[in-house]
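Hi V.,

You were right to ask for the full record rather than a summary. Here it is.
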Amino acid sequence: MKISEIKKAARASLKGKWWSFAGLTFVMLLVTSLIGIFASSFRMILQGSLMPGGFTLKTITFVLLSILYTAASLAMLPMQYGFYYAHLASAREDDLADPAHLFAGYRRFWFILGLAILVQIIVSFGFMMLIIPGIVIALAYSMWPFIAHDHPELSIKEVLERSRVLMQGHKGELFTLYLSFIGWFLLCIPTLGLGLFFLIPYIYMSQYHFYESIRYELDEEPEIESVAIEKETILTDNDPYAGEEKEPNTQKDPETATEPTNE
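Predicted structure:
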């Protein structure tokens, strides 16, 4: 599917839902921003007032807040998965953005948390090497939220492997899709960033439709033997004489048989 067709499909999925997804994006960004601002502010205040020496009350408080900030950041990862899921669910069910979808990842908290952390670690190692390898790795594992939803039977390793294999030959296409939103991003600057509440759902919905355009490439076709067995079973079930011993066919070939004479 062409980039223009993917973006057209994304706009069709967002038709009549732009404001609901803008509100969902606002909630998502607000929660993540409040956690970051709250923890960072306290850390800066305490860090500026810390005195060198032993473990004072301020030092202990600083350490506890750092741990709390890390825990809150990790707890937010399933909500990021829920943001992906909200777009998938809305596109497939043609519903408005439901804030409850943000908590979909908490039903499989440890699985989604471990998956998200592992993806971040892998991508971080990629960017530690160079920017380009980091981008390539990030694109390779970018489909994990959709795969985790569509294939709940897979393990964390299998989800990542499926995303990597699925994106073979498509990483450049997805990167081009992301680049196509640069113009829209520049248009958000005069709006003081308010346009991002509409642009972000547009990007996420486009990524979902990109996934839909390639997801069937990994569907396994049934093996020939299993198809033959299934076909034989169907024929046997429909045959009223199945299981009975049939008499040998003694009928002559129509071409060689002679018609009986009327005497």
